[in-house]
Structure formats: C-alpha cells, structure tokens
C-alpha cells in the first residue's frame, strides 16, 4: 500500500487562485484532517523524532559540520533589522548574500562577546551561524525566524528572567554589528546590512529519528538533516510526477510551489491517476490542513466539489 506524500505550502499562498475542477472534486471526496501548523510541525508528521522537541540547531549543525553530538547548539543567524517608531522589524534572516570572508570579518568582534559567556560562535556555512553550549544548558522559548520576519522584533524576544541574558547578548551584538565597517560597504552597494543576530532552534541532537518513508525528495536544510539522521536516501525534486514515484513510500517537498494550477497539473492529477489498489496520495499543507486521496473515494460522488481551497476567501 505505497503512499506518496507531498509537502505543500500553507493554503493561504494560493488565496485568490481558482481551484481547478478536478482538484475540487478530489478534495471533496478525500479524507481531510487538521493538525498543527508550522514548518517544523509539518516535518514532524513525517519523521518520528525523540525527544519530540526536534531542535533545529543541532540537526542542521550536524549536516553542516558533523560535530553536533557532544554539545548543545543554538542558531545565531545573521539578520537585518530595520528601525521603526516602535523599535525594529526583522526584514531578513539567514541568507543575506554573505561570503565566507564576510562571515569571518563579522564574527571576529563577536567572538569575545560570546566566548566570555562560554558560548563560542561559528559559521560553517554563511547563512547559518551557531553558538556551542554545554549539553545541560536550558533555553528560553525562542521564535523561529519565519514567525518574526516582518513583525515587531520585541514581541518575539525571549521573556522573563530566562530570556534576560539572551536579550542582553542580542543588544550587545547589535551594537557591535551596527558599527562594523563591512556594513558601511554593504549599504553603499545597496545590500542589506548585517546588524543583528537571531537566536533560535536550541537543543541537543535527537536520540532517535525514523520515518515510514523509504525515500525523500527535497533540498530544504531541516528536511535534509532529518533525512540524513534517519538514514534515508535523499534525491533531487523531480520537475513533475513520474511513475517511478510509485515504487515505495515517498516524501516530496513542494513547499516552494506558487501556482495552484501548475501544481495540480504537474503533480496532483497525474499522481491521482496513477493510484492502484490501496495506494494513497497525501497532501500536507504547512498550515496544518491535509487530505488523503485513494481510488476507493471515487464512489463518494454525492459530495459536492469544493468552491475554494481557502475556506475564508
């Protein structure tokens, strides 16, 4: 009973796009479900991770540097924050077009700050920076960057006594980066300055990761890290559905999709047409919505086709 699972973006990305008639009928007849929203929660529906917290930093650190096993790790990604009347908004995080030389120049004045705290900072790849911490370190609640982007920064900083140390370190790092000469050059070149860090994803490497999938297609970094730790084959994303995807349970990352019509024509309709016996097609949206499509559902012909993908439209 092979299952093809498609990781899809939040349904709101397709707001205003017409729902293709074939997809509207299939979704009406499918078994629908609603679960937790968020990119990490979406991946945890396909990977069994123990402990359940599934910390991003050690998983991606192992992928980037192969040294995550003995310490706790916290992402301290480079960020661009724009000041406004209420404080500041984070407009970019992670991939700011830095070279390894740029990273070294920016990290040099930050090393004493974090080194004095016992948290060495490093950047094995330019878009992902890390703090190394003792394994027994306790973290406050940090917001992932996708939640903080474009929003008031203050509302996403760790709160209370547990967060005081990290708010102080962030403020001191922002002062150092604001005065860094590299940022003057970047501004002159119309590039965003690296004037902040973003702490998130802290923890130790999970003890156990497995998946019911036999193969994964994708390139997103957390997906790659989970796939490697689960010892599964990772392959490039095909341009469209092909019969070879029926060979075993497979997970395909299509979260970069923007056009619902193209997604339906290239993937959902041909995958549905290829279903045999008890095969299943699972559509998993990042907002927690999902449905499972099977051949037996064709007898549910009395169900009215959906009018829209996003019910609030």
Would you kindly provide a written description of the structure presented here, covering whatever features stand out?
The protein is of the alpha/beta class and 313 residues long. The protein folds into two domains: 3-53 and 209-299; 56-203, no CATH class. Helices cover 31% and strands 24% of the residues. The chain has helices at 21-29, 39-44, 56-65, 100-116, 145-148, 160-178, 181-188, 221-229, 260-273; strands at 3-8, 31-34, 48-50, 72-84, 87-93, 121-125, 128-133, 196-203, 208-210, 215-217, 234-235, 250-253, 280-285, 289-294. A seven-stranded mixed sheet has the order 2-14-13-1-12-10-11. Strands 4, 5, 6, 7 and 8 form a five-stranded antiparallel sheet that branches. Strands 3-9 form a two-stranded antiparallel sheet.
How would you sum up this structure in a few lines?
This protein has 313 residues and is an alpha/beta fold. It has nine helices and 14 strands. The strands form three sheets. The chain has a seven-stranded mixed beta sheet.
Give the helices and strands as they follow along the chain. EHEHEHEEHEEHHHEEEHEEHEE
Count of structural domains = 2
Helix share, percent: 25-40%
Task: Measure the end-to-end span.
Answer: 36 Å
**What would you report as the Rg, rounded to the nearest angstrom?**
22 Å
Which class of secondary structure composition applies to the elements? alpha/beta
Give a quick set of tags describing it.
single chain, 313 residues, alpha/beta, 2 domains, seven-stranded mixed beta sheet, five-stranded antiparallel beta sheet, 9 helices, 14 strands, 31% helix, 24% strand, elongated
